[in-house]
Design goal:
The structure is a single chain. The protein is an alpha+beta fold. It has 10 helices and 25 strands. Strands 13, 16, 17, 18, 19, 20, 21 and 25 form an 8-stranded antiparallel β-sheet that branches. A 4-stranded antiparallel β-sheet has the order 2-3-4-9, with no helix packed on it. Strands 5-6-7-8 form a 4-stranded antiparallel β-sheet, with no helix packed on it. Helix 2 packs across helix 9 and helix 4 packs across helix 8. The two termini are 30 Å apart.
């Protein structure tokens, strides 16, 4: 459990908060590129408790500025998108990509008042379908050399989803390796044979789908170690005296995780506060072996959400689609086949902000407790101007992170998973020459 004051420190992310300052020191996903329609390259964004507007600048670059005009507070999400900036509808004030006021048509011709006016503006970079923004002080850090950010576009797919709870609940679900044995279990067998559905993949060397394997082996040994990117988490399941199932996931500090997805696929998922009670997860899936079928993946996922907010159709208002007959006969949750909904229910059902003063953690929660310790240390380091995990180091050393799902001999599992990861990279059309450093 956490002390109440520590729970506040790790959940409150608005401007001026200790956690808010820490999260702003890293690049954060702001929107999907696909959210922009061809006829309107302007979008309101709420990020880390700030109301902002994302738009294309004069040379096609992305710009992120404050949402409200400095003159009379009018909403710039409805501004005219012209001359590479946003022109307020009320009195015609024009703002550039840097937030500076460039024109005030109603002011006297000789006025230099515009030179004094500036709204917040933050740098942006587009990476594999996601627009990232830096809301912190000073120069932004360079992007790390993570696979998701370096993979060719045709081997990736980006998506997002709205969860109605605090960001940390979503993140902690993703770094908890023991819950998959229960939350994502099927009563008999996962019936799906569908491209892109996690936990329906066959675990190489077993002939079993991952959902069944982890459901049968429900007591993994969990080991956690610190790494340059944050944490590496091992879930080791003893299948026979000679064979282990080795599943390696990662915390990418401060608010993302990396998870293996079958033999060749991996995804990274950021959990980014909208405010303290809502957050978006942003995902980049990447494939080491094959180009992604983006159209199929997009069509699958769009059937589960409503636009423009990417809110799941199964949510608190309809009990996440819970069906007692399904729970009896098909899935452990009774909430459909989409595991995103299972995870969503788990973290939303705790309430908007989980009260961690009342929980009781066990050995299986090692990754969660390790992350909380790292997060509290990093908040303190940020306040004191110290070095931060996964930020204040050579970005070329921040590679991978290695995420593996494989079978290995009990006596040699550590060397085996690293060898198989090296073989996967060597055979990849794009990752073969990429170093893995301390990944």
């Amino acid at each position: 459990m956490l002390k109440r004051e520590d729970n506040e420190r790790v959940t409150r992310s608005g401007p001026g908060t200790p956690l808010g300052g820490l999260l702003r020191a890293y690049w954060q996903p702001a929107a999907l590129v696909s959210e922009m329609t061809p006829d309107r390259q302007v979008k309101p964004v709420r990020l880390l408790g700030e109301d902002l507007v994302l738009f294309r600048g004069p040379s096609g670059e992305w710009a992120l500025v404050g949402r409200f005009c400095a003159h009379r507070g009018v909403d710039l999400a409805f501004a005219r998108h012209e001359e590479g900036g946003l022109r307020c509808l009320y009195h015609g004030w024009l703002y550039g990509a840097d937030g500076r006021c460039k024109e005030q048509p109603a002011e006297p011709a000789h006025s230099r008042f515009a030179e004094k006016i500036r709204i917040p503006a933050y740098p942006c970079v587009e990476k594999n379908g996601i627009v990232f923004a830096y809301l912190g002080e000073g120069d932004p850090p360079p992007f790390p050399y993570y696979d998701a950010l370096q993979a060719p576009d045709e081997y990736t797919f980006a998506f997002k989803g709205l969860w109605e709870c605090n960001w940390l609940q979503g993140l902690e679900g993703g770094i908890d390796p023991s819950h998959v044995s229960f939350l994502h279990r099927f009563i008999d067998e996962d019936p799906r044979e569908v491209y892109g559905q996690q936990f329906s993949e066959i675990v190489e060397g077993t002939g079993q789908k991952l959902s069944k394997l982890v459901g049968d082996a429900f007591r993994p040994d969990i080991e956690v170690e610190e790494a340059a990117h944050g944490l590496r988490v091992y879930a080791l399941r003893q299948l026979t005296d000679e064979i282990k199932h080795v599943r390696i996931t990662n915390l990418v500090f401060p608010n993302a995780f990396v998870v293996p997805f079958g033999t060749s696929k991996v995804f990274i998922q950021w959990h980014v506060p909208i405010d303290d009670h809502h957050h978006y997860w942003h995902m980049i899936w990447y494939d080491f072996a094959e180009k992604t079928d983006k159209d199929t993946l997009l069509a699958q996922r769009l059937t589960e959400v409503s636009l423009p907010d990417y809110r799941p159709l199964r949510n608190r208002t309809n009990n996440w689609g819970y069906d007692p007959a399904e729970q009896r006969d098909l899935t452990y949750t009774g909430m459909g086949l989409d595991i995103n909904v299972h995870d969503q229910w788990a973290v939303e059902s705790m309430g908007p902000i989980q009260d961690r003063t009342t929980e009781r953690l066990g050995v299986s929660d090692r990754a969660v407790t390790a992350n909380r310790r790292m997060l509290l240390r990093a908040i303190e380091a940020f306040e004191q101007g110290g070095a931060l995990p996964g930020r204040d180091q050579d970005p070329t050393r921040l590679t991978g992170p290695l995420a593996v799902d494989t079978i290995a001999p009990t006596a040699d599992w550590e060397a085996t998973w690293r060898r198989r990861e090296a073989e996967r990279r060597a055979a990849s059309p794009w990752a073969g020459s990429r170093a893995t450093g301390n990944a």
